[in-house]
Amino acid sequence: MKDKHLHIIQQIGANVCRFLLAAAFIFSGFVKSVDPLGSQYKIQDYLSAFGMASWFPSFFPLLGGIILSAVEFSVGIFLFFGVRRSVASTLALILMIFMTPLTLYLALFNPVSDCGCFGDAWVLTNWETFGKNVILLIAAIIVFKERKLLIRFVSQKMEWLVSLYTLFFVFTLSFYCLDRLPVLDFRPYKIGKNIPEGMTIPEGAKSSVYESIFTLEKDGKKEEFTLENYPDSTWKFVDTRTVLKEKGYEPPIHDFSMVELNTGDDITDDVLTDMGYTFLLVAHRIEEADDSNIDLINDVFDYSVEHGYKFYCLTSSPEEQIELWKDKTGAEYPFCQMDDITLKTMIRSNPGLMLIKNGTILNKWSDEDIPDEYVLTDKLENLPLGQVKVESDTHTIGFVVLWFVIPLLLVLGVDILIVRRRERRAAKKRQNNVNEKKEKTREDNGEKSSF
């Protein structure tokens, strides 16, 4: 009796740990898969922090981020349904054995501000991440040791279909969000957000003090300047960065600063308080930007000029790269300098297009989805394009979940109605055969005894 009770307790404990791991891995894999470029940037931060950026080819951070999200999501789904138990429990344990010491190092030395394990959806401090990973590591050890006690929700004959569809779903979602934009935006530059409000410091809160540092070059000599001592136009722009001088309350948006390339003027307030429409072409590194749809971008600029709207290209690239872009694309729009991280946060596309009015983000487009002449048929005031694009995270999540769940429900239905029914029939047939053999044995024994 004690052994039976112990077995039940072990089974309950193993399955509780299994669902805890499943929830963590599904959430982590999902939020990474909807933002593959965000995962790429975080992996690049890791490689730079550890001095390993030159060790890997340029495509590695993006490919690694997509594969990591697929592995995490798949492991979570496998654990949830109780399929591929050996593979899932082993991968979960390997991941936690790797991540737990890593996050301890991050907590102690802080080479990156956050681990990025849940993307921008849920930002944890490095110590919070380490504590979370310790719990998950314990759960992973228990699940690995007791993997045979995990309850199955799908039969062995159908688990291949669940596995295959899970991989298809997560890779399709990642590449869709890479080609377009993330279907869920967890960043402060989400459509409908007001940029000045995101920069506001609550009354009484001490604000952080930031300073923009500009690297300029003249006569082969590079020097750093601030806005206060920005030199004349004979200096060529090389790079810009934002540094924290004094820590305080940090608003969601704290580093939005537009510096016009030709004049060196900060035009941030003019743009954010403009009651008219402004198109912002965001290309965090202009030399890496995709120019396959440059004709559409130039058409949008021509449309802006025709209707009196403002248009700026925001980049962190040096002036010589901007001049090369102009020569290559025929760009006539003005350029502004901005912090590279800010540009990456604003939109997950290089280039990407953003439409704002009075500081409010009305819409965003990836390079593959820029509006064309069939959309820009009138003034923005008369088009749905000129209004805030209506988005519902609840609706989006529900749609994505249904896209994943409905096929799996069909699989479960087939599994229950057909596969398991066949298994029950086969088991019943085997039992009948055993009973018939027993009956025949008894009859044979009876015949022998009668002699």
Short description:
The chain has 451 residues and is an alpha+beta fold. The chain has helices at residues 2-33, 36-49, 60-81, 85-109, 126-145, 159-179, 195-198, 268-272, 294-307, 319-329, 340-346, 393-450, and strands spanning 209-218, 221-225, 236-246, 259-260, 277-282, 310-315, 335-337, 352-357, 360-365. Helix 1 packs antiparallel against helix 3 (60-81).
What does this entry look like structurally?
It is a single chain. With 451 residues, this protein is α+β, with helices and mostly antiparallel strands. The chain folds into 2 domains: 2-179, no CATH class; 195-390, Glutaredoxin (3-Layer(aba) Sandwich), CATH 3.40.30.10. It is built from 12 helices and 9 strands. Strands 4-7-6-5-8-9 form a 6-stranded mixed beta sheet, sandwiched between helices. The protein has a 3-stranded antiparallel beta sheet with strand order 2-1-3, with no helix packed on it. α1 packs across α5 (126-145), α1 packs parallel to α6 (159-179) and α6 (159-179) packs antiparallel against α12. It starts with a helix and ends with a helix. The model has no long low-confidence stretch (mean pLDDT 88).
Which structural traits does this protein have?
six-stranded mixed sheet, alpha+beta, single chain, three-stranded antiparallel sheet, 451 residues
